[in-house]
Fold these 2 entries.
Entry 1:
Amino acid sequence: MRAIRFAESLSYDAAYSEPHPGNGECVVRVHLAGICATDHHIVRGYMGFSGVLGHEMVGTVVEGSEAWIGKRVAGEINCVCRRCDLCQAGLSSHCRERTVMGIAGRDGCFADLVTLPERNLHEVPETISDEEAVFIEPLAAAYQVIQQVPIEPRTRIAVVGSGRLGLLIAQVLATTGCKLEVVGRNPKTLLFCEKKRIQSKSVDEVRLKNDRDVVVECTGSPKGMGIALAMVRPRGTVVLKSTYAGKGTGARRHEGTEGGEEGGGDGVDLAPMVVNEVTLLGSRCGPFSEAINALARRAVEVSSMVARVFPIERGLEAFEASADPANIKVLLKINPR
Amino acid sequence: MRAIRFAESLSYDAAYSEPHPGNGECVVRVHLAGICATDHHIVRGYMGFSGVLGHEMVGTVVEGSEAWIGKRVAGEINCVCRRCDLCQAGLSSHCRERTVMGIAGRDGCFADLVTLPERNLHEVPETISDEEAVFIEPLAAAYQVIQQVPIEPRTRIAVVGSGRLGLLIAQVLATTGCKLEVVGRNPKTLLFCEKKRIQSKSVDEVRLKNDRDVVVECTGSPKGMGIALAMVRPRGTVVLKSTYAGKGTGARRHEGTEGGEEGGGDGVDLAPMVVNEVTLLGSRCGPFSEAINALARRAVEVSSMVARVFPIERGLEAFEASADPANIKVLLKINPR
C-alpha cells in the first residue's frame, strides 16, 4: 500500500506492507489525514519513532468485527493495555504500556490502511463531511481545555499562539461567551480570528499586565510561555498545550499537542508562577465525543482552516507546505470516500 | 540602631537610622529573626533590593496603637494598598503596589526595630516560645501546601528537597496521615526526618516511576523540578515552592519561598507535564493563623531545626553559617524578650 513513512528521513513508499489487525482491532481505509506539528517534531527525531506517520484521520472500516465494517470513523490515538495501574485507575489515556498511532510503537494513518483497536473508533455522523471529520482529533484536544478549566462569561482569557491548535481552542472558547483574545504573530491567522469575530492582537502589541484569569499557551516556545506568565493574573491559570522540543529529558510520550515550533532547549523560567501562585495545567488529548458533537451542530467551523490538500503521493511536498504558518491546515487525500 | 543591611554588599551597621512608623503602622522591637534562602538570593542581587534584610521574626510592639503596645507578635510580610484591582478582588497578598518586609521596598527585621502595618501583626500565644515563633512565617508558607491541595491518608506524596522549608512542609504533611516520603541530599536533614518518623530517601536512590499523587518541589533547582516531574503520576499535582534564581525575567517579587540554591538559569523542561497532564501549583506565602495554631498545639516541632544562634553583631558570620546545608536553621538574637 501507499504510505508516508519516517526512518531517519521522510519518504513516500508506494509498496509499504499492509497492516495485520490484532485481536479486537479493525482496519480502516483512510480517506483524509491531517498534518500536525507533532509530525514535524517526529521528523526532527522526537520520540525516536520510525514507521508510518499520521494521527489525524477519517476513513472507512474495511476489516474487523461485523458491526464496524463499512462505518465511517475517526479514531482515538492512544492504544492501551487496560491492565496497568493507570488503566485500572481510570487513567487509560496515560497507560504505561500504550502505543500511539503514528507517534509511538504503532504505524499511523498517512497510508491507505491503518489498524486501531475497535474501542478507539468513533462513528462519524453523516452531517459531518470528511474535510471536517479529519479535525476531530485536534478539536478534541481543544475541548480538553474547557473540561479542565471552568470558563464563565466573565472569565478574561487569552490564547497565546494562533496556529492550528490555537485557532481550534479559540473557537471552542468562543462558544462559552467568555472575554477572549487571541495573541499571535501571523497576519493570516489573525485575519481568520477577525472573520470569526474573535478579538485578536499581534504579540508585539499585547498588554502584559498580569490581568487575565486564564491563558492558554499553544505556541510551543519557551517565549510563548513567558508571555503567558506575564499575562495571567496572580492565582490565575495557564493551560499548557505545548511541548517544548529540544530538551528531550523525560518526554517519553508526546501526542495530541501542538509542537514546539520555536523550541530549542531554552527551558522556562518558573519563578513568576511561584511568585504569582499561578496554576499550570498540562493538557493533551481530549474527548472525541465533544468534538464530534460540536462539528455536527456547527458550533465550530473548521473547513476554512484547510489551506491545501495534496494526494498522498505528494506527501513530502505537503509536509513542506504545512511547515509554512500561513497554511493553517494541510491535508493528505488518500482514498475516495 | 543595630542592623544587617544590604547595599551592593552585606554589612553590619551599629548606627542605622531608626524607623518612622507610617499611618496605621507599629514599631516592633525584634527578639529573634531567622535567616532564609531568600535572604541569600537578595545578597546575590535578586530583587534589586537594598536596605535592612530579614522577614522572619518575633518581637514586641513598642510603638503604635494602644491596643498593640507590649504585645509579642509575628508579622505578615506583604504590606498592601487595599485599593488596587487585586486587593479589591480579595487577592491582597498579590497587591500590585505592595512592599515586602526585607525583600522589596521596605526595611526588614534584622535590626533592633522594624515597622509593619498593624493589620499585618499576629499576637503570639504564651505557649509558643520565641525560638518557635520565629518559624511562624516559613511554617505558614508550609501550610499553604495543604490549603492548595486536598491531602488524604491514601495520598502518595513526596517532598523533594530536605532544606528548611522542605522539612517544615514534611512535618505539616505528616499531620494528615498521608503516604509521605522526603527526598533529599543532605544526611543531616534526612536524619531529622528519621527522628520524626518521616520516611526519607537520598535523591540518588529514589524511584522515578511517575507514581506519586502529589510532589512538593522545594529544592530551588531546575534539577529538583525534573525529579518532581519524574515522580508525579499522570494527572497528578506538583506544588512548586521554589523560585529559580538565574533567569531573572518576570520575577519582580519573590517572597516566602525557598530560594534556588542550585539555581543558575537552566530553566525547566515542561514537556513531561503536558504529556502527563500534570497540574503545577505555584505556592508562596501562607496562613499565619494555621502556623500559630499548629505550634500552640504541638502538631509541628521546630526547635530542633535550630542549628545555631548568633547575636546580631555577628550577623555576617550567621549568614555564612546558614549557607551550610548542615545547619538547618540559623537565627539572629537581637533583643531579649
Entry 2:
Amino acid sequence: MKTAIFPGSFDPITKGHEDIALRASRLFDNLIIAIGQNIDKKYMFSPEQRLSWLIKTFEKHPNIQCMLYEGLTVDFCKQHHINYIVRGLRTLADFENEQSIAHLNKQLYPEIETLFLLTDNRFSHISSSGVREIILHKGNVKDFIPEPIII
Amino acid sequence: MKTAIFPGSFDPITKGHEDIALRASRLFDNLIIAIGQNIDKKYMFSPEQRLSWLIKTFEKHPNIQCMLYEGLTVDFCKQHHINYIVRGLRTLADFENEQSIAHLNKQLYPEIETLFLLTDNRFSHISSSGVREIILHKGNVKDFIPEPIII
Amino acid sequence: MKTAIFPGSFDPITKGHEDIALRASRLFDNLIIAIGQNIDKKYMFSPEQRLSWLIKTFEKHPNIQCMLYEGLTVDFCKQHHINYIVRGLRTLADFENEQSIAHLNKQLYPEIETLFLLTDNRFSHISSSGVREIILHKGNVKDFIPEPIII
Amino acid sequence: MKTAIFPGSFDPITKGHEDIALRASRLFDNLIIAIGQNIDKKYMFSPEQRLSWLIKTFEKHPNIQCMLYEGLTVDFCKQHHINYIVRGLRTLADFENEQSIAHLNKQLYPEIETLFLLTDNRFSHISSSGVREIILHKGNVKDFIPEPIII
Amino acid sequence: MKTAIFPGSFDPITKGHEDIALRASRLFDNLIIAIGQNIDKKYMFSPEQRLSWLIKTFEKHPNIQCMLYEGLTVDFCKQHHINYIVRGLRTLADFENEQSIAHLNKQLYPEIETLFLLTDNRFSHISSSGVREIILHKGNVKDFIPEPIII
Amino acid sequence: MKTAIFPGSFDPITKGHEDIALRASRLFDNLIIAIGQNIDKKYMFSPEQRLSWLIKTFEKHPNIQCMLYEGLTVDFCKQHHINYIVRGLRTLADFENEQSIAHLNKQLYPEIETLFLLTDNRFSHISSSGVREIILHKGNVKDFIPEPIII
C-alpha cells in the first residue's frame, strides 16, 4: 500500500492546492495532507482554521486524510512509514526552492522520494500569499479558493 | 483619452522608477503614479515622504499625477476608470512575481491590461531595497535616486 | 497617431499571438503585424502562407495591418516612423531573450520603445515550436491556432 | 495496475536517466522507457543503438520495458492505456520547457498526468548533450553513463 | 599581494561556505572572511558565535582571517585596500541577487571586482536558511556544517 | 605563477568579451584567450579570422595570449598546466549552462577551478549571436565590438 504526504502551510488552501491533492490522491492508496507547524513563522489563519478548511474541502474523498504535524517533514514520514512527498510546482522560483528542500530531505532520510505535479494552467497565478494580499485589501477571493470554503 | 496607473511602494523612488514613469507618460494621455498602502508591510519612509518625493520628481510633467491609495489596485482602477497598469521589469524574479499579480488582477477585473516596460540597462541593478540597504549602512545613494531628491 | 509593430516569425500564428495582437490593437491607433525574413533560419511554412494566415485572422480588425519585411526590425521602424514594438511574454526564457533584443534595439535606435504584454494563462503553454512538433507527429492543432485557420 | 511511460531521446542514456527510471519503477507496476522518433531531429546514435543501451541498462528489472515509438507521446499513451508520464527535472530551463509540454499534453489528452522527479545531485550536471560534446572531443564519458554501457 | 574578502552572514556557516572559502584561499594571498552586521536583520546566532565558528573552521589555514565588520562592504574594502570580493553561487535566485549587488558595489567603488565560484554539487542544496529550519525543528545538521562545529 | 584560460567561440568577439578578458588579466599572471574548435558547430567567421580579431584587440596587453585549440577544454588545461578557467556571466540562461559545464569539467579534471565574472551592465545585452543577427541584416555593429575591429 502506497501512502504519500502533501505537506504545506495552506494559509489558506487555494484551488491550486485542491487540484494537486485530488490528482495525487488518484496515484496513491492514501494521501495525507498535512499542515506543518513552525513557531517562528507568522500565519494569517490559525492551524485549526486551516485544518478545518482542508477537512471540508476533501470530506468526500475517503483516501485523503488531513492533519497537523510538528517537527521536520522527514521525521513525520519516518514515524508514519511514508515514503513519498508530493509537491505542486507553480513557478520557477518554487522549483528552485523545492529542489533544495527535496535534496535536503533525501540526505536526511534516503528512503524518501519527492514527486512533483504541475499546477494546472487555470490556477498557476494563484498563491496563498496572493490570496492573503487580496483578503487584506478587502477583495473577494472566492474564485481562488475551494468551493466549500467561505472566507 | 487613455489613462494608466503606475503603482508601487516607491520606498524610495529610484532612477529606474523615474525612467519607467517618464517613458510610460509618453504613451498615455495621463499617468497616475500611485503609492499603495499596506498596513501589514513595514516601510522605511512614510507615505507622505514618499509622495512628496514623487511630486518633486515629476513636477515638470503636467500629464503625471502622484497620489496615495488604499485597497486593491484593481479596485482603485475600477473607481477611476483606469484600464492600464504599467510596471517596470528589472529581473526575472520580478517577472515571475508580476506575472502572477497581472493574472490575478485580470481575473478580478477583466477590463484591466498590464503593460511592461524594461528597466534601462543603466538602472537595472538599482532596486528600492538596495537603496535602503545602502542608506542603513550610511552610504551615499545620490547616484541611484532622481536628481531633485536628497536623502 | 500612435503606431506599433508586433514583429515575429508566426510559424505558424498561435492563439497566444492572436490574443496579444488584439489586446495591443486596442492600445494603439494602428498595429502592424510583421513577419521578419531571415534567410538563414529554416521555417516550416513559407512567408506567403504565414502572411495569409495573419491576414485571415485579423481581417475584421481595420486598424491591424499584416505584412512581410526584410532587414532589422529597427530599420523597418525608422523607415515607417514607428516608435513602438509590442512583444508577448510567455516564459522566463522568453523574457531574458527579449530583454537583450530590446536593449540592442534601443542602442541601435534610441527612439524605439518596446512594450510587453503577458500571454494569457489559457495560452501560456502554446508556442509555435510546440504547434510545429504536433503537426510533425500528425496531431491535431486546431485548439492552438486561431479559429479561421485550418492546418 | 498502474503503468507509466518515461519518454525521451536517450542520445545517449546517462546516469541521470538511469536513476530517474529506477526510482520511477518503484512507484509504478510497470514502467515503459520509450524512445520517441522525430524524423526532423538529428541524433548522434541510431534508435537501435540507443534502444540496445536502454535494454542492457535495465535488463535486471522485470517491470521495466524499453521500446521505440513514433508519433505524439500522448497518442502512444492513448493506444496503450497509459495514464502517467514520468520526466526528470535537472535545471530550471528543463522545468520551463517541460511545463509547456505537460500542459500541451493535458490539453490533447486530459486523462494524462505528468509526474516529475528531480535528478539526483550527483548527476544534475550530466546531460546527453554534455556527454555528446565530450564524445565529440574524444573525452572519456564512462563516469556519466550507466555501468553496463561502453561508448 | 592580492587580498580578497568573502563577506556573508554565515548564520551559520555551512559546508558550502567552507568549500568556497578554501577554494578562494588558493587563488589569493590572503582571504578575509567577514561577517557583516546589519542592525535591521534578525539572526539566529550572535555575531560572536558565528565568528567563533568561522575561526574554528579555518584555524589551520594561515592565509584566512575571520572578522566582523560594520557598514557597507565596499567601505570596508576601501579602508583595507581590498579589491576583490568573492561570492559563492548556489542557485539562479542567488545569481540574480548577487548580480544587482555586484553592480551596485562597482558603481559605489569602481576599483572593486567581484568573483564568483560555484558551490560544489555535493553542497548545492545546503543553505544557511535550510540549516536553520532543520535546527528549529530539532533535526540533526551535522552533515551540513563544517566538521569542527557542533550545533 | 597563476595562469588562466578564457575559452570561447568569439564568433565574433564582443565588447563584453573584451571587458571580461581585461578584468581577468589583472587577476592572473597570464591569461590565455582560446578559441575552441568544434567540427560539428557552424560558425559565421573562420577560426583564423576570429583569432586575428582577438590578437588585434589585446595586442597591447603583454600578459594576454590568444590561440586556437582542439579537443576538450580540460584536456588543453591539463597539457598546459592551467588550473583556472574564466567565464563571463551575462544572463541566467548562461549561468545554468555554465554551471553544468563547470561541474562536468571538475569531474573530468578535479584540479580545475572555474571563476566567473559578471558582464558589465553596459554590455549585458550584447551577445555574439545578437551581433551576428545584426550583421546578417546589414546593420552596423561597431558599438558592440572592440574598437580596433572593423566588420
